[in-house]
Amino acid sequence: MSSHQAVREGAKQVVRLLEKFPEEKFKYLVSFKATQLERFSRIAGIPLPKKLATEVPGENKTSINEIKDIVNRTSGPLGLQKDMLRKMQAAIPHDQFTESAMKDQITALSNLVNNKYKNYYDVGDKLYKPAGNPEYYQRIIDDIQGKKKENILAGLRTVFMGR
Amino acid sequence: MLKCTARKSSLNTVTKLYGINAAKTYNYNPVSLYSTTNKNLQADQKKQTELEFDTHGSPIVRGQKSTIPEYKLPKWKEALGEYVIKTFGLDMDKIRAGPVAGSYYYSICKEQGLQYENEPLSDSAKFFYEDLKLPKTFSQWFQITALHEWMLFVRMRAMPFKYGRNYQQKLVDKTFSDIEMRLFDEMNIHSGRIVDQYSKDFNSQLKGAVFAYDVGFYTDDTTLATAVWRNLFGGRKNIDYTHLDAVVKYIRSQLYVMSRMSDREFALGKFKFVPTKEKINKLSAQEEEEMKQKIIKKYEELDKSGLLLPSDKSNLSYDN
């Protein structure tokens, strides 16, 4: 029981670290923060943050859980053979954390949150402001964050000149 | 044509066989295979006829002998080439993009995640498929290759624009011609339409991956980790964070090694990915300075000596 408690505490810590992840400015199909928060909130036994909770069970869309339910009700889901399914199941790593595994997760996440590798392996302005195209990264970031909208001329220039 | 070797376990010798003639040159007695009287003999024979595929030393592009790792140009061709370069004053830095970025740099990206069903995994492939538990599929191989190519792109952007751009172009061109070949030959797809579709798919995957990694590289480790999760790990839910951590460390350390190289060295193809088992320590300021001076001295002497062939000359800087 005590180890179970420790795993729960660890999961709570993971959730706290995950909350430090920046919001993605660019919307992708899947969000790391959202899926992982959902995953570890369940282990930690804390309710999902409000914003996420409304996102997860969409009203019009079929949720992942509903699809899973439908798939599981048939005898051979997706028309696959039983041994194939077993193989697929075996290939997916499962969420059963031991105390030490949870500790590893926490150290790994805190390394990322603290920017450990970016600071240690500092590449300097040589790569951050590359000689061939010094504004390259700044332009991408500005565009994502909506700070600076480029006009069509600048866009055309990039198309023809390459930078 | 793939080379295949057949091992005779009893004699402990390795016979090299080529293609169809395999059965002819390798003299075993086919009748004994069907013998029902001696079961042990049967088992022995089975062992002997087992074929092992070995791609080591074979051309990178199948059917093109010039892509064999130990290939040497005939002397007269070499001399003619040097003469042409000298008389027309060709820009070698531009020409070199093909053999360096298109051939060499592509080959090191490709072999990182390369795996065949009946061959043991290389050390780098072990890291990706065993340590990180990635599925052994073609598209996974592409993602691994794309990650390494992106790392090279980052360094290529720091070269003078004209040259860096050309290097990137050559690397991408080679990637897609090779993918097309692999889909036809190795994945046994016979429909050109499907191969086209896959190529387009891989093209958009590469664009997306480069964009996401660029943002991650410039901002912070968490963004880079999410980019890695989305691309390399296919956005799977049950991700082990230690794996993400390891990949981010791998990327940052490789980029660090690249950032300490001068344009000249990088453009000449002196870079190779540091094996995952080796730990990369940061250089102290003094060591860095020492290394820099050594490189400057080496290339200054080479440039002044006049011993360089026209094809070895380069105008790229060696002091950055």
Short description:
The complex is a heterodimer of chains A (163) and B (320). Chain A is mostly helical.
Description:
The complex is a heterodimer of chains A (163) and B (320). Chain A starts with a helix and ends with a helix. In chain A, helix 1 (2-19) packs antiparallel against helix 2 (32-44) and helix 1 (2-19) packs parallel to helix 6 (99-113). Chain A is an all-alpha fold. Chain A folds into two domains: 2-121, no CATH class; 123-163, no CATH class. Chain A is extended and about 55 Å long. Chain A has ten helices and no strands. Chain B has 320 residues and is mainly alpha-helical. Chain B is 59% helix and 5% strand. Chain B has helices at 22-25, 30-33, 39-49, 75-88, 92-95, 97-112, 123-131, 138-157, 161-185, 192-218, 221-231, 241-259, 263-267, 285-305, and strands at 3-8, 13-18, 51-53. In chain B, helix 6 crosses helix 8 (138-157), helix 8 packs across helix 10 (192-218) and helix 10 packs antiparallel against helix 11. Chain B is globular, with a radius of gyration of 24 Å. Classes of the chains: A mainly alpha (163), B mainly alpha (320). Chains A and B meet through helix 2, helix 6, helix 7, helix 8 and helix 9 of A and helix 8, helix 9, helix 10, helix 11 and helix 12 of B.
